[in-house]
Amino acid sequence: MSSIRLRNVSKRFNDTEVIRDVSVDIADGEFCVLVGPSGSGKSTLLRLIAGLEAPTDGQIHIGDRDVTFEPPKQRDIAMVFQSYALYPQMTVRDNMGFGLRLAGVDKKEAAGKVDVAAEMLGLTHLLDRYPRQLSGGQRQRVAMGRAIVRQPAVYLFDEPLSNLDAALRVQVRGEIVDMHQRLRTTAVYVTHDQVEAMSMGDRIVVLRDGRVEQTGTPHELYQRPANRFVAGFIGSPA
Ligand code: ADP
Ligand code: MG
């Protein structure tokens, strides 16, 4: 069970409330996209789910556990960022296996898991290379591989494609969707790009100024935007 439930979550930094009374339910196995303009609170909301920030108010449940004040390590979550921060002195194989080894998984089992993830992402022929010998898209795939090998209950993505050029972005976008269709692991994906949101999300949460403007399937948002902001942002004719 890895549904995610946010109940009346708020987050204040000093005197500024950047997340305002957000309630969102993400179903087990769903690919949920958080979309909104820069500064709307997407990364903060993701960090709250990850446990990298604690809410000022409200509760966060993952599955049937209240994780509101649990540290990130206990949440069974993997995060993929835009800056892929691979270890330059380690091969792809070691980059992918590093987290498993840290978590105490023995060498042989870790190697097996790396092989499976590499196969899934088309990285098998690159396992002995170093990050500097990879293209941007390949590096991003290794960063995803590093998240996949741990088989977490939830994936969190924070604008993972924003360092890639346009063509590659479309390609890796497709790969992430394929990966999700195979694994069916609950995913929360942050982007400011409405095309990306509409093409990837099972469901979309539109944020503005730390508030949820609307939640729905791409079809619902397009056909019945809740207000002019959503209509304008999504590019709906309504
Ligand atoms: P987004 O990811 O949608 O661009 P963020 O969640 O990064 O938005 O930021 C939302 C708002 O919260 C911004 O105004 C940002 O300046 C502010 N903010 C984010 N993190 C902090 C922090 N650690 N301290 C103070 N303000 C912050
Ligand atoms: Mg952000």
TrEMBL record:
Keyword Membrane in record: yes
A GO molecular-function annotation: ATP binding
Protein name per Swiss-Prot or TrEMBL: Multiple sugar transport system ATP-binding protein
Keyword hit for Nucleotide-binding: yes
Span of domain ABC transporter: 4-234
TM spans (from-to): none
Keywords: ATP-binding, Cell membrane, Membrane, Nucleotide-binding, Sugar transport, Transport
